[in-house]
Write a structure and sequence with these properties.
Elements lengths: L1 H8 L1 H17 L11 E6 L15 H8 L3 E4 L19 H14 L10 E6 L2 H4 L15 H17 L4 E5 L26 H24 L9 E5 L1 H10 L18 E4 L11 E4 L18 H15 L7 E3 L2
Parallel strand pairs: 1-2, 1-3, 3-4, 4-5
Antiparallel strand pairs: 5-8, 6-7
The structure holds 2-acetamido-2-deoxy-beta-D-glucopyranose (5 copies).
Pfam families: Lipase_GDSL (PF00657)
GO molecular function: hydrolase activity, acting on ester bonds
Organism: Meripilus lineatus
Length: 327
């Protein structure tokens, strides 16, 4: 507004301002062009880790790289939060480990990625809001959901500053429905101490919904400060909500469709060591693809094939179903 007022006093400035406004409008909501993206650089946690795979099979980035096809540069690490300064855990994090590793590769010349042909994805938050962090009050003093989400959005700014231009931000799934955080949960490999599962599910619903809304508002406000970037929000929450409501449209295994249990569900005793093996029920073969969840915390491989398909369609602009491009 100030710039416009100043421009009004100076006709030449006005022309510049109008040209800038028009080109900004033209660049709006476009996202990358079909065929533009050749490289996929992934950041995140076990939902995206291609080595320590969370879904018991092949991780979504590997499927997406095949579907694209894209050259895959995977940096996500199991157990990650956005930053261990905010939510301390004995796992690598996006800011302390994943980004430094990426920048080290760029600095020594082993990673040479043309910005226009490269898209960066981030799927983070599950461990930031979960048991052992925000949900149970184990964050650094004073840290809230505002800080962990700001950190995730800051991933866009940090990569942009280094020249990156295409971003797809994957928000949190409805975690209140994974077996670990559902109201009818049971002691499992992720948590065996006594807890009120109803309270956990209610608090998780609040954390995920507020976190996703904060992320959306923050991402929406980025384009004006990050010119020539394409910033998209992939609505994982909406996609997984649809899988919960219409599993038959996504799951294709030979067992009855199952959105509450898991391919590998292991029941523990209260207070039992989480390194025990528990009392497990495991689906195998073609029955696995009937499940939405792999275990008490992770999406199944079939759910991840869907994620891979939808992310690929978003990047190639074949679908705008789950994705909003803010620039
Ligand atoms: C470049 O840095 C990356 C990340 O630290 C490392 O894995 C790789 O071996 C290095 N390559 C060279 C050629 O130094
Ligand atoms: C668990 O929390 C819910 C919601 O606050 C409450 O209604 C319920 O009584 C609690 N259950 C127990 C066993 O404390
Ligand atoms: C879903 O899977 C769980 C095992 O995790 C099982 O106990 C439950 O009966 C299954 N539900 C349906 C509807 O098949
Ligand atoms: C589990 O541990 C808690 C805290 O040490 C204790 O209060 C509770 O009685 C234990 N539960 C069982 C079933 O041993
Ligand atoms: C389910 O569909 C996927 C493709 O999304 C396919 O790869 C998989 O083999 C199918 N599963 C079964 C059990 O047919």
């Amino acid at each position: 507004m100030l710039r416009l007022l100043r421009a009004l006093q100076y006709p030449k400035g006005l022309i510049v301002a109008v040209v800038a406004a028009v080109s900004a409008l033209a660049a709006q909501h476009v996202g990358p062009q079909p065929g533009q993206i050749k490289n996929l650089v992934t950041f995140g946690d076990s939902y995206t880790d291609v080595v320590s795979v969370g879904d018991g099979g092949v991780a979504w980035p590997v499927y997406a790289a095949g579907y694209g096809p894209f050259h895959l540069f995977p940096f996500a690490r199991s157990g990650a939060t956005c930053s261990n300064n905010l939510t301390p855990r004995n796992f690598p994090s996006v800011f302390e480990n994943e980004l430094p590793l990426y920048f080290a590769g760029v600095a020594n010349g082993s990673l040479k990625l043309t910005p226009e042909e490269t898209i960066y994805t981030l799927w983070i938050g599950t461990n930031d809001v979960g048991a052992g962090t925000l949900l149970t009050g184990n964050q650094s003093p004073g840290v809230t959901i505002v800080d962990t989400v700001s950190c995730a959005v800051n991933w866009v700014k940090t990569l942009y500053a280094s020249g990156a231009r295409n971003f797809l931000f994957q928000n949190m799934i409805p975690l209140q429905h994974v077996p670990l955080y559902s109201a009818d949960s049971y002691p499992n490999r992720f948590w065996t101490a006594k807890r009120n599962t109803t309270e956990w599910s209610i608090f998780m619903t609040e954390l995920v919904n507020s976190g996703n809304e904060i992320a959306k508002l923050m991402l929406q406000s980025l384009p004006s400060t990050l010119p020539k970037a394409h910033i998209g929000l992939f609505d994982s929450y909406a996609l997984f909500s649809d899988m919960l409501v219409r599993p038959q449209a996504y799951l294709n295994g030979t067992a009855p469709l199952n959105i509450t249990g898991a391919v590998r569900s292991c029941i523990f005793q209260e207070n039992e060591s989480t390194s025990d093996s528990g009392d497990c029920t495991t689906a195998t073969g073609s029955a696995k693809d009937s499940f939405l969840w792999f275990d008490e915390l992770h999406p199944s491989e079939q759910a991840d094939r869907v994620v891979a398909r939808e992310v690929t369609n978003a990047i190639q602009r074949k679908s705008s179903r789950w994705t909003t491009w803010f620039s």
